[in-house]
Amino acid sequence: MSGKPRLTYLNGRGRMEPVRWLLAAAGVEFEEIFLETREQYEKLIKDGVLMFQQVPLVEIDGMKMVQTRAILSYIAGKYNLYGKDLKERALIDMYVEGIADLMQMILMFPFSPPEAKEKNLDSIKERATNRYFPVFEKVLKQHGQDFLVGNKFSWADVQLIEAILAVEEKIPAVLSGFPQLQAFKVRMSNMPTIKKFLQPGSPRKPPPDERYIETVMKIFK
């Protein structure tokens, strides 16, 4: 074992991408195993590796962790990205859960039937611009600090920059009414660990394509 965290998932974003983002933001190198067949997935279940018969799977510190939220909170705590006290942790949790709701819409979008894609894209835009992004625009404006919580880089900042970039891929002008978030995006994108993750050749995965969707359907359906 190299001592690096080992991530088992498909070769695509899905529910593992926030984990890749958080590890990369913390400056942690990791290894990946990509599932390509249903047989690989069934073997993990048979071997008792997946507690709830689900991936993502992250092997870290001698544990085989499943459930994305548990994985992310462990990594955030381990690498000092989870606030200085319970109040800050509660704020981070609230922000992260809100962003996760938006990201769930983006996660499911590629699996929309063709006739529903335009409607679903409108829903993503409406939720982003009217429900989620205004919250973070207001937070950043009110406290005048670079980061969302405690004026210190945290899991919430990582989750937000991931969400901003994911929504922009589909709706390029989505930040036009949010000057604080525009500035936040520039700051986060220039942080050394995140800048490295945004470069070509990093472990960051591209938007889902037809091959990825077919692989998901083949393994999990």
From TrEMBL:
One Pfam match, given by its short name, reads GST_C_3
The keyword Transferase is assigned to this record: yes
Entry's Gene Ontology molecular function annotations: glutathione transferase activity
Gene3D superfamilies reported for this sequence: 1.20.1050.10, Glutaredoxin
**Mind listing the UniProt keywords for this protein, alphabetically?**
Transferase
Q: What class of enzyme is it?
A: transferase
State if Signal is listed as a keyword. no
What GO biological process terms are annotated to this protein in UniProt?
glutathione metabolic process
Taxonomic superkingdom? Eukaryota
E.C. code:
2.5.1.18
Q: What are the GST N-terminal domain coordinates in residue numbering?
A: 3-83
Q: Where is the GST C-terminal domain?
A: 85-209
Q: Which InterPro entries match?
A: Glutathione-S-Trfase_C-like (IPR010987), Glutathione-S-Trfase_C_sf (IPR036282), Glutathione_S-Trfase (IPR040079), Glutathione_S-Trfase_N (IPR004045), GST_alpha (IPR003080), GST_C (IPR004046), GST_superfamily (IPR050213), Thioredoxin-like_sf (IPR036249)
Q: What's this protein's family per the entry?
A: Belongs to the GST superfamily. Alpha family.
- Name of protein: glutathione transferase
